[in-house]
Amino acid sequence: MIDESRVAEAGALSPRAGVALLTLQLRSTLQEAVDAETEVASVDVDSALWQLRSRLGPLMEDRRRALDADLVAEQDQADAAVAAARAEAAQIVADAHSRLDA
User: Fold this and answer.
1) If you placed Cys at 18, which of 3, 10, 38, 59 could pair as Cys (CB 3.0 to 4.6 Å)?
2) Are 24 and 16 a contacting pair, CB within 8 Å?
3) Please, how many CA atoms are within 13 Å of residue 96, restricted to the half-sphere of its CB?
4) pTM of the model
5) CB under 8 Å to 18, separation ≥6 — which residues?
6) Integer Cα distance of 86 and 44 in angstroms
7) Buried b (16+ CB within 10 A) or exposed e, 28-58
8) Cα–Cα distance between 40 and 23 in angstroms, integer?
9) Furthest CA-CA distance within the chain
């Protein structure tokens, strides 16, 4: 911010020096504004990320549970198919033995 004492000093200086001092103060103030805007923007990004995570968290957990249930169902089906294939293979072997014995 512009300090009133510096403005008074600028009046006591030559016009060129006063303008230079005011220019430096203006640049400093503009840089402070840019820094403040950058800080606000980063806070907004952090807030947006937090909101996104809080919304997506439950959705991801629901999806994970659904995928786990699907995986269990698929594993059960695969186990049943393997058991059926083994039973069929055992039956084929038994039939082959009975044909050879006959």
Assistant:
1) 10
2) no
3) 6
4) 0.47
5) 10, 11
6) 61
7) eeeeeeeeeeeeeeeeeeeeeeeeeeeeeee
8) 26
9) 126
CA quadruple 69, 71, 73, 76: dihedral sign = negative
Look at residue 63 in the predicted model and tell me its pLDDT. 94
Tens-place pLDDT, residues 53-98: 999 999 999 999 999 999 999 999 999 999 999 999 999 999 999 9
Task: Give helix 4-12 / helix 15-101 axis angle, nearest 10°.
Answer: 140
In angstroms, rounded to a whole number, what is the distance separating the alpha carbons of residues 7 and 14?
12
Provide the phi-psi class of 3: left if phi over 0, else alpha when psi is between -120 and 50, else beta: beta
